[in-house]
Design brief:
Keywords: DNA-binding, Transcription, Transcription regulation
Distance between the termini: 36 Å
Number of helices: 10
CATH superfamily of the largest domain: Periplasmic binding protein-like II
Organism: Dictyobacter kobayashii
Pfam families: HTH_1, LysR_substrate
Strand order of the largest sheet: 4-3-5-12-6
Radius of gyration: 30 Å
Order of helices and strands: HHHEEHEHEHEEEEHEHEHEEH
Structural class: alpha/beta
Number of domains: 3
CATH class of the largest domain: Alpha Beta
Helix content: 40-55%
CATH topology of the largest domain: D-Maltodextrin-Binding Protein, domain 2
Protein name: LysR family transcriptional regulator
GO molecular function: DNA-binding transcription factor activity; transcription cis-regulatory region binding
Length: 299
């Protein structure tokens, strides 16, 4: 159906009057009447009934009115989405970060970005690295920040180095390892570590490093939250390999003790990832440029 004819029909339905509709639309009354008749012929149904000077919708007319409203609502949504692509000062950015980046790095970055672009809606999720990759690949996100080596990420993604993390071994005060000068990789394998779930960047790097030494990780306990892991260790449940960023306060207060690792240097990369073929809004491009001021905005 002709969209302009549907607009005329909606105005007639709204005002329930041919003459008033023609005046608001700056059309002649015969032109409005002809458009309604044309729609009826196209639908093979009567859409309106005259009751004196008023126009009343038939059941078919009400059905058409409902769908026409939905169509023009979608048209407005489309116009708004296209405007957001043109306008750097509005729109929405969908971003996900692993727990370390999302909790300990992003807040200060977001605060500075918001001071420059207060009208931009930031939709931020905290997920493990594998979930972020999955959501990037299925078009759900604009960007992601994940932990792990860039060489281990899907080749179909654009990957840009963001910063480097450091993983350390922590125990509670009084733990038997507190008297050790260093702990070897072999001592981490069997039922001593409280660890993150499979798919997290920390867990993946730890398992790869142990596997290189023919050691299989057998966790004492698996949790999905860094804060829960810290509390388990503080309570004396076990030891943990965690991001240094997540335990600075506990190390300073003495609630946790760092034990050096003898033959492992765990420094995973935090990488900024996106689909190379995803069309980004101007706001999303501005966020990228905010993080990497000397880089070209991604396509």
């Amino acid at each position: 159906m002709n969209l302009q004819n549907l607009r005329v029909f909606l105005k007639v339905a709204e005002l329930e009057h041919i003459t008033r509709a023609s005046e608001e639309l700056h059309l002649t009354q015969p032109a409005v009447t002809k458009i309604i008749q044309s729609l009826e012929q196209e639908a093979h149904l009567e859409l309106v009934e005259r009751q004196g000077r008023r126009i009343v919708l038939t059941h078919a007319g009400r059905v058409l009115q409902t769908y026409a409203r939905q169509m023009f609502s979608l048209e407005r949504e489309m116009d708004d989405a296209l405007a957001a692509l043109r306008d750097v000062h509005r729109g929405e950015i969908k971003l996900a970060a692993n727990t370390t980046a999302g909790v300990y790095l992003l807040p200060s970055i977001v605060a500075r970005f918001r001071s420059l672009y207060p009208q931009v809606a930031l939709n931020i999720s905290i997920l493990n690295s594998q979930d972020i990759i999955d959501h990037i690949l299925d078009w759900s996100l604009d960007f992601g920040i994940v932990e792990g080596e860039a060489s281990q990420l899907p080749e179909s993604l654009n990957v840009r180095f963001f910063t480097r993390d450091t993983l350390i071994l922590v125990v509670p005060p009084g733990h038997p390892w507190c008297g050790y000068e260093k702990i070897s990789a072999a001592e981490l394998g069997d039922n001593v570590l409280v660890v993150r779930e499979p798919g997290s960047g920390v867990r993946d790097m730890l398992e790869r490093e142990l596997a290189c030494r023919d050691i299989s990780l057998k966790p004492l306990l698996t949790l999905t939250d860094n804060e829960a892991i810290k509390q388990m260790v503080i309570s004396g449940v076990g030891a943990a390999v965690v991001s240094f960023l997540t335990v600075q306060r506990e190390l300073a207060s003495g609630d946790l003790v760092q034990i050096p690792l003898a033959d492992m240097k765990l420094q995973p990369e935090l990488s900024f990832i996106q689909r190379p073929d995803k069309q980004l809004s101007r706001a999303a491009q501005a966020f990228f440029s905010f993080l990497f001021p000397l880089a070209e905005s991604p396509a």
